[in-house]
Amino acid sequence: MGIQHLNSNASAEEILEILDADAGVIIDNVLSSDQIDRINSDLEPYLKNTNEGQDEFTGFNTRRVGALIARSPECRELAMDPLVNNVSKKFLEPHSDGYQLHFTSAINIGPGETEQIIHRDRGVWGGYIPRKIETQLSTIWAITDFTKENGATQVVPGSHKWDRDRIPSEDEICYAEMSAGSVLIYTGSVMHGGGANTSKMDRLGVLIHYAPTWLRQEENQYLSCPPNIAKDLSPELRSLIGYSKGGYVLGFFTDPEKKDGELEGVSPERMFSKTHDEYSIIKSAEKLVTNSSKKR
Ligand SMILES: [Fe+2]
Q1: At what angle are helices 82-92 and 12-22 packed, to 10 degrees?
Q2: What are the angstrom distances between the C-alpha of 245 and each of 131, 137, 221?
Q3: Distance from the CA of 105 to the center of ligand 1, in angstroms?
Q4: Strands 4-6 and 24-27
Q5: d(C-alpha 78, C-alpha 31), whole Å
Q6: Which of 178, 157, 135 lies closest to 24, judged by CA?
Q7: How many CB atoms lie within 10 A of CB 117?
Q8: Domains in the chain, start-ordered, CATH in brackets?
Q9: What is the Å distance from ligand 1's center to 237 Cα?
Q10: 193 CA to centre of ligand 1 in angstroms
Q11: At 106, which helix (H) or strand (E)?
Q12: pLDDT at position 268
């Protein structure tokens, strides 16, 4: 038993077939060394300044950086990866009219970190959603090599089909060992957790997750990538992170500043439309964000 590997020419269908059986698969050597260098330089200033986690789950020797769409041009490329997006669409569309970006985080597991508790990511929604509905397609992009010694992600292949309370034995836990530039694709239903780092090196991964458009995003994209930044993204990426409708009226936007009714019931896409008073709409959305952060 182990985590299956495919090469970067793999089709979405091959990936989905393994996800159906194991709920986790590694695609080897997707990123070039130039891309890895650019990701490292995007993340370095943030990783340098961030604190370690404050509890067992987030890890006392682990540093996390979020808001990657706002902060890292290269992570925007990862989020838009065509193969991953094709897999996300096909995996999630039986349960939704669309999918969206759900979560971004660069996670650096430092030397001395202990293993994270094994969990299923779908727990973020509190266990209210029937298990036959898949709610998440996740990626961990390896920015350094991932080895069992430096904290490669623990994965329990096939555990998406287990009874909820079954606990994996040690020999059922596999490790997502992969070279820098590879990506682990896994589902929200598979048991997994960060690995212990018994080495002297850091283990850096970029996590980008996707979910159906009808579910609340784990990382609030309207605050993590507010309109003043989102306005400069490509329309495709902006839509992916949530500035779009998730159904006929799901997520529509009305400008609270407008009194003439001109934009009543507009779609969020119109927020950045050239045909309307783009700037004032963005301004009003920014004001909402500023006011809400002041209240905290
Ligand atoms: Fe997780």
Answers
A1: 50
A2: 25, 20, 14
A3: 11
A4: parallel
A5: 9
A6: 157
A7: 10
A8: 4-212 (2.60.120.620), 221-295 (no CATH)
A9: 24
A10: 6
A11: strand 99-109
A12: 81
- 119 Cα–ligand 1 center, Å: 6
| Alpha-carbon radius of gyration of the chain | 20
C-alpha 82 to ligand 1 mean position (Å): 23
Distance 243 CA to ligand 1 centre (A): 25
Q: What is the pLDDT of residues 12-70, one digit of tens each?
A: 999 999 999 999 999 999 999 999 999 999 999 999 999 898 888 889 899 999 999 99
Q: Measured between alpha carbons, how far is residue 70 from residues 8, 116, 223 in Å?
A: 27, 27, 10
The C-alpha torsion from 227 through 101 and 119 to 201, rounded to 10°, is -80
Maximum alpha-carbon separation in the chain: 65
CA of 152 to the centre of ligand 1 (A): 13
Tokens 């950086």 belong to residue: 65
CA of residue 164 to ligand 1 center, whole Å = 16
Residue type at position 152: A
Amino acid letter for position 32? S
Average pLDDT, the chain: 91
Beta partners for 38?
A: none
Q: What are the pLDDT digits (tens) for 118-155?
A: 999 999 999 999 999 999 999 999 999 999 999 999 99
- From residue 237, alpha-carbon distances to 20, 96, 106, 231, 256 in Å are 27, 19, 19, 10, 25
